Automatic annotation (TrEMBL):
Domain of life: Bacteria
Gene3D superfamilies reported for this sequence: Alpha-helical ferredoxin (1.10.1060.10)
Chain ranges of the 4Fe-4S ferredoxin-type domain: 6-37, 57-87
Protein's name according to its UniProt entry: Glycolate oxidase iron-sulfur subunit
Catalytic activity: (R)-lactate + A = pyruvate + AH2; glycolate + A = glyoxylate + AH2
EC category: oxidoreductase
Short name of any one Pfam family annotated for the protein: Fer4_8
Cofactor(s) required, per the database record: [4Fe-4S] cluster
Function: Component of a complex that catalyzes the oxidation of glycolate to glyoxylate.
EC number(s) recorded for this UniProt protein: 1.1.99.14
Binding note for cofactor: Binds 2 [4Fe-4S] clusters.
Length: 432
């Protein structure tokens, strides 16, 4: 018996009745067509590993690693199996076993190194973002792409480097600790969660998020001592790191005195709303974590609550929307982004078939499992083409890069633009 895995997952795995309702919504089962790539198959493997009937590294690690963690299965499950919690507990045990048995491959070591020494330090990530701006501004990016140097190092990295949006000057990045007053009547005070990747690479979207919030009557504070949300750490089995980050964020946001804690990234928002689960066994932090969760909101929720937005421009063309899995499946937010897009003057909104199903970004899944990810993405692009949309919108930075890559793979970059929800709303409001 694997006692740790048994204690963390066994009761939850026994809730699964193996009915198969999860199969049609699971992107990896649909693309790979095998039981070990399905939620119920993975749950059964976790149960067998907990009982000691199969080996954690030899039989469980592979199927678990190939899971996107989109959690669509939780919505489809008729008995409420907490698949996401089973998945992250399994990843924690697998990661610890790999370290203990010195069974990590170079990719595992690289992930652990990056998550430990990069994502825990916002200033280091910002420095990388500043370098990328300089890299794009000086024309070095064009040289790298022409010589295909990056392709020789990592083909997935080369593909996603091309999809990075043009960064604006770092001097426009909002400073942490800053308070931005509401425009007009002050309706509420919010604290803004800047994120790590978004703060480093997509800070224009952060800046526009704050501008939209102030237009809606929100006074916005950016907590100075906030940190990475911990989602990537939790998804890679580094639970202790995720807990440390959660406590730092709870403390930083408590000091803001804000009514709501707002984010613009579906993946970040999902773990922010599960800090109470993450810290459930910590008596000192349980209550504080619950309060944090109760105040956490996606930007779309706040804009609908305190709207309508003062739109100034008409939109030209058809818009469609691709759900962020963690925004929809974990946070339960799917009506608000659609409401906002449909309210833009002139916009023609067309719902994409299976827009609720994963695009296969999955944090860093599309880098670690590039071919599997692209197979799912290419199928998604066929659904996108059927809408005849000129703009595809999403609400998570990873999903945004994935959709941009999908459009590029279809050869449609000149006809279809992939944008964050915030960027679309800001443009319609005349913000720059």
């Amino acid at each position: 018996m694997n006692q740790q895995l048994f204690d963390l997952t066994y009761d939850a795995t026994n809730k699964c009745v193996q009915c198969g309702y999860c199969l049609p919504v699971c992107p990896t089962y649909e693309s790979m067509g095998k039981e070990s790539a399905s939620p119920r198959g993975r749950i059964n493997l976790v149960k067998l590993a907990a009982e000691g009937k199969i080996n954690v590294l030899d039989h469980l690690a592979g199927p678990i690693d190939l899971c996107l963690g989109c959690r669509a299965c939780e919505i489809a499950c008729p008995v409420g199996v907490p698949y996401g919690h089973i998945l992250e507990a399994a990843k924690e045990v697998i990661a610890e076993t790999q370290v203990e048995k010195k069974n990590e491959i170079w990719m595992d070591k690289a992930k652990r190194l990056a998550l430990s020494h990069l994502f825990l330090h916002p200033k280091r990530l910002r420095a990388i973002g500043n370098f990328v701006w300089l890299y794009q501004k000086t024309g070095l990016a064009k040289i790298v792409r022409k010589t295909k140097i990056l392709n020789k190092i990592s083909e997935p990295m080369a593909q996603f480097e091309k999809m990075l949006p043009p960064l604006e000057s770092p001097i426009k990045r909002n400073q942490w600790g800053e308070i931005i007053p509401a425009k007009g009547e002050v309706k509420t005070r919010v604290a803004f969660f800047a994120g790590c990747v978004t703060d480093a690479m997509m800070y224009r979207t952060n800046r526009l998020t704050i501008d939209l919030l102030t237009l809606a009557g929100c006074e916005v504070l950016i907590p100075e001592k906030q940190n990475c949300c911990g989602a990537l750490h939790a998804h890679q089995g580094m639970t202790d790191h995720a807990k440390t980050l959660a406590k730092a964020n709870i403390e930083a946001f408590e000091q803001s005195g804000a009514e709501y804690y707002v984010n613009n990234a579906g993946g970040c928002g999902a773990i922010l709303r599960e800090y109470d689960h993450l810290l459930a066994n910590d008596e000192q932090w349980q209550h504080r974590a619950k309060n944090f969760v109760n105040k956490s909101r996606d930007i779309s929720e706040i804009l609908v609550q305190y709207g309508p937005l003062p739109f100034k421009k008409e939109w030209n063309g058809v818009i469609t929307y691709q759900d962020s899995c963690h925004l929809r499946n974990v946070q339960g937010v799917y009506k608000q982004p659609r409401h906002l897009l449909q309210s833009i003057p002139g916009a023609i909104f067309i719902e994409m078939e299976d827009s609720n199903l994963c695009c296969a970004s999955g944090g860093i899944y599309n880098i670690l499992h590039f071919e599997e990810s692209m197979k799912i993405l290419d199928e998604k692009m066929e659904k996108l083409k059927a809408t005849r949309a000129t703009t595809v919108v999403t609400a998570n930075p990873g999903c945004l890069l994935q959709m941009r890559l999908g459009v590029e793979r279809q050869g449609c970059l000149e006809q279809v633009e992939a944008l964050h929800l915030v960027d679309v709303l800001a443009e319609a409001c005349g913000l720059r």
